[in-house]
From TrEMBL:
Matching Gene3D superfamilies: MFS general substrate transporter like domains, Multidrug resistance protein D
Region Disordered: start-end pairs: 508-537
Protein name: MFS transporter
Major facilitator superfamily (MFS) profile domain location: 27-507
């Protein structure tokens, strides 16, 4: 497979940035706010769920409040990337913000669970364009060689969302009511919208081609089927049930049809030629596995710490500080080194090694593991993910031409999203089965009764159990955690193998190494000679 060097750091980027070198800070701030909105939403809403159900009812449909949002986000992600490539990223991004804000406002006004689920789907449609828009616009504004400097910002936003989400959600719900869990998006989104409208200047595009509606439809059906299988399998329906088998069949048929149609479509939603780049394909694989591992860890680590180590559920975001802090610090270092040296192959390799080691160490935790020890293990995992989170997007964007920046960003984001769905589903199924088996073995009929509804108990339910049953449950959770993280470490080995084959293709926009790009930069009257847009910020 030949690696495509493309033109990701020049061309359109130079045109757009000549108009606004002094406003890049404002644009980046607006982009980070939009990214925060997309990542923070589910975590804030998750904390408010008990209150929402108490007021609206509809407990049996509770999971759909999250599922509808996730489905709409995943299904719309590739389409937003393609629309941005065809008609201009600024317009597509602003439209996605508006749709997200409309969905947020409507969700806050919902009068029953059915309305809330429908409005959450609208919100998810907008959210699908937020992350893609952020990544693609940064790809337009800042050459890959300089983009590493901003990795810390993106990793910081991610860490902030995971830590602050439950805290903010709990505070808002307790003092302002659950509806403000949605309304809080409106002022933040308005700031991002105003800043993007005023200071972001990118070349306008007018494609004569029509959107590939058939391809978009097939991909949507395929993605929807996959997400439903991973969401429902083992919980709503047994893995071998007719519903799950039918969804798998529909999903496989839709995706096969999608791949075939993409070879025929005039303007494909996901042009297959981007996968001719070995680096792009490898980054898609590594991104999928990173999503698989990260969201599995975010799900099971707080559960282990609450059930086995006796930590408070209120501070569940703070429990992840060792992992998120290490991820943030390493991501910033990796970005700086990449910018200064132009070298990046070492990071996927080191990141995959640390990620595999961290997961294996976490799999060794038992009922006697101290918080300090588990914190060290989490830091190892976080360091590995810090090497991988932003590098995968950077290398993927560097592997395609400028005209495909949107679909490259959306495809990489989609693979990470699908990875998270598979990770939560597969690790969750393994965890639940192990907990149920251990409870039945250690506590007999009482153990089976305790876990017949769910293998995951909250702190209040755990406190009500007899001492013997509680100790059995703590052992069962540590055993389930062992199985889940051991599986994660095995899957992470695939990322390590993939990273070995990454090619060190020079990053575009490397300052002194590209005189033509320097000349383009010098054409902007307020940018000093030999200075890139990123350096002028």
């Amino acid at each position: 497979m030949a690696d495509n060097t493309g033109a990701g750091g020049s061309g359109d980027s130079a045109v757009g940035t000549e108009k606004q070198p002094r406003s890049v800070r404002v644009v980046l701030l607006a982009l980070m706010i939009a990214m925060l909105l997309a990542m923070l939403d589910n975590m804030i809403v998750g904390t408010a769920m008990p209150t929402i159900v108490g007021e609206l009812g509809g407990l049996q449909h509770l999971s759909w409040v999250v599922t509808a949002y996730t489905l709409a986000t995943a299904a719309s992600t590739p389409l937003w990337g393609k629309i941005g490539d065809m008609y201009g990223r600024k317009g597509a991004f602003m439209t996605s913000i508006v749709i997200f804000l409309i969905g947020s406002a409507l969700s806050g006004m919902a009068q029953d669970m059915g309305q809330l689920i429908g409005f959450r789907a609208v919100q998810g449609l907008g959210a699908g364009g937020l992350m893609v828009g952020v990544m693609a616009i940064i790809g337009d504004l800042i050459p890959p060689r300089e983009r590493g400097k901003y990795q810390g910002m993106m990793a910081g936003v991610m860490a902030l969302a995971m830590i602050a989400g439950p805290l903010v959600g709990g505070t808002i719900t307790d003092h302002l009511g659950w509806r403000w869990s949605f309304y809080i998006n409106l002022p933040l989104g308005a700031v991002a919208l105003a800043a993007v409208s005023a200071v972001l200047h990118l070349p306008k595009k007018r494609s004569q081609a029509r959107i590939d509606y058939l391809g978009a439809g097939l991909l949507t059906v395929g993605i929807t089927s996959i997400v439903l299988v991973t969401t429902w399998g083992g919980s709503e329906y047994a893995w071998g049930s007719a519903v799950i088998m039918e969804l798998i069949g529909i999903g496989v048929a839709a995706l096969v049809g999608f791949v075939f149609w993409q070879t025929k479509a005039a303007e494909p939603v996901m042009p297959l030629h981007i996968f001719r780049s070995l680096n792009f394909t490898l980054m898609s694989v590594i991104g999928f596995i990173t999503g698989f591992v990260m969201f599995g860890a975010v799900l099971f680590l707080p559960l282990y710490q609450q059930s086995v180590q006796g930590a408070s559920a209120t501070n569940s975001g703070l429990l992840l500080l060792p992992m998120l802090g290490a991820m943030l610090a390493v991501s910033m270092v990796a970005g700086r080194v990449t910018t200064n040296s132009g070298k990046y192959k070492v990071f996927p390799i080191v990141g995959s090694v640390l990620m595999t080691a961290g997961l294996f160490l976490l799999a060794q935790m038992d009922t006697d593991t101290s918080r300090f020890t588990s914190g060290v293990y989490m830091a190892v995992l976080g360091a590995g993910m810090g090497c991988l989170m932003q590098i995968t997007m950077l290398v993927a964007q560097n592997s395609v031409e400028m005209k495909d920046m949107g679909v490259a960003s959306s495809s990489t984001t989609l693979f990470r999203t699908l990875g998270s769905s598979f990770g939560v589903a597969i690790m969750g199924a393994l965890f639940n089965q192990r907990v149920e088996d251990e409870m039945a073995a250690r506590a007999g009929a009482l153990g089976s009764k305790v876990t017949e509804q769910s293998a995951q108990l909250d702190a209040a339910s755990l406190a009500k159990l007899p001492v013997a049953a509680r100790e059995a449950y703590q052992y069962a959770v540590s055993a389930g955690t062992h199985s889940a993280f051991l599986l994660g470490s095995v899957v992470a080995v695939v990322a390590l193998v993939a990273s070995v084959f990454v090619k060190e293709v020079p990053l575009k926009g490397a300052g002194p190494q590209k005189p033509a790009e320097d000349a383009a930069g010098d054409a902007a009257s307020d940018v000093p000679p030999k200075q890139t847009v990123a350096e002028s910020v």
